[in-house]
Each structure stands twice: as structure tokens, then as C-alpha cells.
Write a structure and sequence with these properties.
Blueprint: E1 13-23, E2 26-37, E3 41-49, E4 52-58, E5 66-72, E6 79-85, H1 90-97, H2 103-120, E7 122-124, H3 129-132, E8 136-137, H4 153-163, H5 165-178, E9 185-190, E10 195-201, E11 207-209, H6 215-227, E12 249-253, H7 262-276, E13 281-285, H8 290-293
Parallel strand pairs: 7-12, 12-13
Antiparallel strand pairs: 1-2, 2-3, 3-4, 4-5, 5-6, 8-10, 9-10, 10-11
Amino acid sequence: MPERARADGQRRRGFRIGCTVEGPAGAIRLDLAVQAEPELRVVGERLTRGGLVLLETALRDPGRRMVQAAWHTAGTAPVTRAPMPDDRLGTALVPLRVAGKTDGQRLVLAAAEQVVVALRSAFACDPRPSRMRAPVPAGLIGAGRLQGSCDNLAEVLWRTRAECAGRHALLVSAVRDGCAGPAADVFAEEAEDGSVQAFIDRGDGARTPLARLGDGELRYLALALVLLTGPGVLAVDPVAEVPEAYQTLTVLADDLDRRLDARQVRALGELAARTCARGHIRLVGAVRDATRAATAADASVVDLGRDGTT
């Protein structure tokens, strides 16, 4: 929530946020008004296509944990109204409330599905090196699925090395490009106490525990692993209603180049360009140095104009 957000007469503070999702239903815009204090509530929501309001919710009675919802019907009545809970995204509840009997209702359903699928198909990733150095209790953190902070990197490396030799070979190649010293392999092994620890095989009999790598190397390795995997490996809600061949994943990385040197940023950008060109992964990241990010193939840079951040 913005620091300077002012409270109203009832000491409520919040923010607005939104997105546009393009797809078969057209360009669908979702706008939210979120109350963060004194308690978290979704106090307003609007789903639109062009100038047509498909779904709209509003808080009418602050004393009730409900919002009043109205959705496009285009039948005998132009809209249908009903209460919805204020702790859920109304767009995600549309399939439970809208029957799909009219063209208008079917449009609402298609728009809601398009937005929900896009929001579910996102993985927010912020590798935390301080959490990645400790051995991981096997199967206790993410059951083989990488968490957003990459705490269980060793556990996931143990799984991916055994399941997909091709992608693992690409990861090893990426490690050579962005980490110091030779790298013949990256692997994890289980200790007697059941924990899992990861290493870089230097190819000459020596191996380096990932715990000894610098922060930049650990962040680079984790981000490379994310780009080379997918929903089956990352801790995201899989979109089962979309065939696997058509599923896409958006990786969100705030402060993407934090702790990375010029070599690592360049190597990560090249890896992202090759991976995203296949059409199944998108990378959206906020970076500190726009000039380095702009050199990556097919990268689009948007200047946010805030304290030099891009």
C-alpha cells in the first residue's frame, strides 16, 4: 500500500490495482479497489471489455463482510445482482454464479476464465540466497516444487536432474555462463539425516557446495532453473482446463538484476530470450540498469520514471 495513502473517516486505507488480459475474448480489463487497513477486503471490482461492464462489485455496507455484485446478462434483465464475499476475487467466483444461458452471460464467463487463467499462470520469483544455503529436508518444504524464494533449490535440483536430462544439460550450460570456475554438472545428494544438499561438480574430482557460492551466483542459478522448468516443477496452481501444449507461464521477478554482475545479466537475458521464444514462458522483471536489460533479444523495456528504476 502506498505510504502516503490517506485514511477516510472510518480509518480505512487501501489501493487500486488492475491488469489487462488479451485472448480469445478480446482485451479484458480487471480493476480492483483493495482495502488494506484496518482489515483486508476487496471493496470494489470491475471487469470490462471496451466500454462494456461485464462484472462490477461495490461495498455498500461496511458492517457486512459482503459486496454487492452485478453482472452483464443481456436477457430479459440487463444485469443480475447478488451478494458476494469480500475476501475473494469476484471474477474467480463468476463460474459459480453465472449460468451461461444468454450470450451476455457466456461473454462474462469467457472473460472471467481468460483473466483467471492468466492470473493463475504466474510465478512470482525472488530468490533469497540466505535461505538457499542450508540443506533442505527432503520432501518437507515443497514436495519437489520450487518455492518463490527458492529455499528448496537443492530438493528441486535433485528431482529435475533425474527427470529431464535435456533441460538439466541446459542448466549446466547456463551455470558455466554465469558462475565462476568450471562446471561439469550440478547435482544434489541426500545426507544420512534425510536432508538434501546441492553441489557443482568441477569435473576434476572437486565439487563445490552451493552454500559456498556468492549471492549473485545463487540468484542467477535459481532464476536460470525457473526459466528452464515450468508449472510441473514450480509451486503454481496448474491450469488443468488448458491442454499442456497450450499452457503458458509468466515469471514475475521484481528487482531481477539484484546482486547480478554484467556477465550474469547478459547470460540470463540470452537464456530468457531463447526460452521465451518457444512461446510457453514470459519473463516480466523490474531492473535497476535498463541499458543492460535492453541488450537482450526481443526484450521490451518500459521506463517507470520512478527514482531511475525501469
